[in-house]
């Protein structure tokens, strides 16, 4: 090809809109007709023109990130950096794209070739853009105390006021329990705490001692002390959570009954409790540490002592791989166990498992409430933590809600009891006593 011909080809390419250049890639990944509208930085668009839902491709850097980190991590980086955005109903957009990118069409060799061609035409084949600074890269031995502390700090020590924006007044960062169609988020969180309290038998005897592992901002501790007269020790390894929880305890006038510690559960020894609650903390333990975890808890309970382990689960278990969006930006080193493995591990530690309950649909609804709160307070959230971190939370919570809705992930409460030599456990005859 002569120099003049190359110049004419280059000129013709530059006349093409971004939508025209992306068309082969969109077809390779999503089929002949994109199910949602894609709007590009030059004002061009592809896909349906009706409706308000759209994916905004704001920069060629979005494609460059995908070229260097194909799949979930590249897309996540582009979204966090602001090279990609979602407008409209984020749940609808994610669900539609998830359905369109079927096993027959998603990011195969055809898509890779198309992406390479588009990148070349856009001049997006340069060096990879730096990952957003919000990305976590933990160091040290996995699930060591120091590394776990760093991982927890990455997620939880981003500002208590930010969490308050989307969690609401209950400041509870775990699955709620909705008892009716019109149940508010705050009431649903209280209902969850009450269910756990009843399963643990709190209030059956005066002065019962409760250990709340991973106590967060102290909501379960406050509920147990206020409603059931329990003496509570709450432990967390998040400095910001501990500070806020102590403030809430003092404001409630419960400092004589509730103690909040900045402490790893592995450092608990020589104490005895009547009950242990672990709500949304077990996902940070890791499969390799599971036996140790339940052994520690068992050592803290006497005969008839009860453990309520409330945790996200997945069939067969799953490790949040280092190339996944959620591991890099949300929960470094997070792991989900199969509920069957949890039951077996509890039994091996000496517990008799007395109840297993799934709250999967409740978690989907909880997450939708959180996303709605975040979006309603978006400007304030951005002012508190910056646009990148606000986008991280929006994406991870919306995607998680869809995972709970379609059954890809679940959440289970598993109740274990320490039996005595006679086999007694002082359990109610039916679940009705917990309602």
Automatic annotation (TrEMBL):
The protein's name in its UniProt record: Class I SAM-dependent methyltransferase
Family of this protein: Belongs to the CFA/CMAS family.
CDD domains: AdoMet_MTases (cd02440)
Keywords: Lipid metabolism, Methyltransferase, S-adenosyl-L-methionine, Transferase
Domain of life of the source: Bacteria
Organism: Catenulispora pinistramenti
Domain Polyketide synthase-like methyltransferase: 162-376
GO molecular-function term, one example from the UniProt record: methyltransferase activity
One BP term from GO: methylation
Annotated region (Disordered), positions in chain: 124-150
